[in-house]
Design brief:
By secondary structure, the chain is an all-alpha fold. It has one domain. It contains 18 helices and two strands. Strands 1-2 form a two-stranded antiparallel sheet. The longest helix has 36 residues. The chain is elongated and about 90 Å long. The N and C termini lie far apart (60 Å). The mean pLDDT is 83.
């Protein structure tokens, strides 16, 4: 066989080898969990098959959380090229694990969000089967969503699993339908608020910096303020959410501490930004570079808060099963042993390293084009929306907020592009019959002008000639061109569909798994 043919075979099998490596590493992790838990003494010191199986499913769930959910924290930073994919994965793995182990807490709620009444569960065995079915259903649904390239809510996945298994175990009355109604409302609330907040921040940055003649001068004033606001939001967010299991404070105290931190950050970064800006050119690309370091910090802090909060989605049901086996009873709260927390932390990190790049690219690159300013606006939306929603008592999903923020900045760009295209067309219509070179010179002058100058030029133009509107057909055609260019509609529809069916799909899977487990376990 020729050497060239051997190289062709090698190249053709490269992808398959990579997939086998990922699968083999994930399988090895679950086998290690199986061997470890098989040697744990539970109660009488005998091997607990239920605990071994539950721990393996918990590890599988952790892998899928790392593969799917973590992408929302670092995806925008990667898409904007503030971070490389490798750098983002390393930062996220470190801070996710740190958040889980440092601030993950020692006690977890056994019934996520109180969506079912544990008192209606017949006995300890039924409760264990219920939690195993819920955990397995949530993990499998996350796996399916990751394979489809759809970022979905881990919380919603496990909520659906608990609901479906609970109904299968004790009937429809076990469910708290008011809670489920609030969760269903969050499907709309979370992305809409996240998108609006991100779009408002981006518009503020544009109007205060990039729409000005002297961008660098305005950047020296505004960027330190924006970074200070980010520091305030993230400090408050971390104190309230990331550290709530080891240090509980009210909102006012958290906000005041965050304000003190933000003031210190402002005083520190203002001269640094000024020095950095003096070396830059007066254009948008240069201004973007000033947001790179804040974005790296945002990705790290979001990952820490996510690890502190969402690790419970992986290990909460496992901790509940462990508690039920040890105490032979069902409790609303369960202690999280360190080995359980380690399964969650290590599993999330391995899942991110092996399977995370696909969703990171989806969030950062495949929905809309991101730069540092847009990614900064998305990070701000993620922190601020969670804080505001928690104070208003609104159930929101961090996944939906972050992805909603990506869509928000994309749709804002569409709106601005369509408005600009309409304005250019109006200028051409007003100059009908004029020399073409004169028209192009006016358009060139208009596009290089500041926002205030553009408004003045348009007002002067409209005083001279009557406005000529585009026809409806022309306007619709122009809108479609920019919509296709700036926001991928197929990604929007795919992700929205995945969000809507997450709870029903995981609930149905959990019900099926519960009946299968009960059928296997009953004599």
């Amino acid at each position: 066989m020729e050497f060239r043919n051997i190289n062709d075979i090698e190249n053709a099998t490269t992808r398959g080898r990579k997939e086998m490596f990922r699968f083999g590493t994930a399988l090895l992790f679950i086998i290690v969990i199986m061997l470890f838990t098989a040697n744990l003494n539970v109660g009488t010191g005998t091997v607990s098959i239920e605990l071994v199986v539950a721990a393996m499913i918990g590890g599988y769930m952790a892998l899928n959380i790392g593969a799917n959910d973590v992408a929302n924290n670092v995806g925008p930073a990667v898409g904007s090229k503030a971070l490389t994919l490798t750098g983002a994965i390393i930062i996220a793995a470190i801070f996710e694990s740190a958040g889980a182990l440092i601030a993950g807490g020692e006690v977890v709620s056994t019934i996520k969000n109180g969506i079912i009444d544990p008192a209606m569960v017949g006995d300890t065995d039924t409760f264990i089967w219920l939690m195993m079915a819920a955990l397995l259903a949530g993990a499998i649904w996350l796996n399916i969503a990751t394979a489809l390239g759809a970022p979905v809510s881990t919380t919603h996945s496990i909520v659906g699993g608990v609901l479906g298994a609970g109904i299968a175990a004790a009937g429809w009355n076990i469910a708290n339908w008011d809670k489920m109604g609030a969760i269903a409302a969050s499907w709309v609330i979370s992305p809409v608020i996240g998108g609006l907040v991100a779009a408002l921040f981006l518009m503020w940055i544009k109007r205060s910096i990039t729409y000005k003649d002297d961008m660098l001068h305005n950047a020296k004033k505004m960027v330190p303020i924006l970074i200070a606001i980010m520091a305030w939001a993230f400090s408050t967010y971390l104190i309230m959410k990331g550290l709530k299991k080891i240090w509980k404070v009210d909102f006012v105290t958290a906000a005041l501490i965050g304000l003190a931190i933000a003031s210190f950050i402002y005083i520190t970064v203002r001269p640094l930004i000024a020095r950095a800006a003096n070396k830059l050119q007066n254009n948008k690309e240069s201004i973007n570079s000033l947001f790179t370091i804040p974005l790296i910090f945002a990705a790290a802090l979001l990952s820490f808060a996510h690890g502190a909060n969402d690790v419970a989605n992986a290990v909460g049901p496992l901790a509940a099963i462990n508690d039920a086996l040890q105490s032979e009873g069902v409790h609303t709260k369960a202690e999280i042993p360190i080995w359980v927390m380690l399964i969650g932390a290590i599993g999330i990190s391995i899942g991110l390293l092996l399977f995370g790049p696909k969703l990171i690219k989806t969030v950062g690159q495949e929905i809309t084009e991101l730069d540092q300013m847009r990614a900064f606006s998305i990070a701000m939306a993620a922190a601020i929306t969670v804080i505001v929603a928690s104070q208003l008592g609104l159930p929101v999903s961090s996944t939906h907020i972050a992805v909603g923020g990506v869509f928000g900045v994309g749709f804002l760009r569409e709106y601005l592009k369509r408005t600009h295209a309409k304005t250019i067309q109006e200028i051409r219509d007003h100059h009908q019959g004029a020399d073409q070179q004169e028209v192009e010179m006016f358009i060139q002058q208009f596009e290089s002008s500041s926002l205030e100058q553009k408004k003045f030029m348009l007002s002067q133009l409209k005083q001279k000639d009557a406005e000529v509107d585009l026809s409806k057909k022309e306007r619709k055609s122009l809108n479609k061109v920019y919509q296709k260019e700036l926001v991928k509609r197929s990604a929007f529809l795919k992700i929205a569909a995945a969000w809507v069916i997450t709870v029903p799909a995981s609930a149905l899977l959990a019900a099926v798994f519960f009946f299968m487990i009960r059928g296997l376990m009953l004599p």
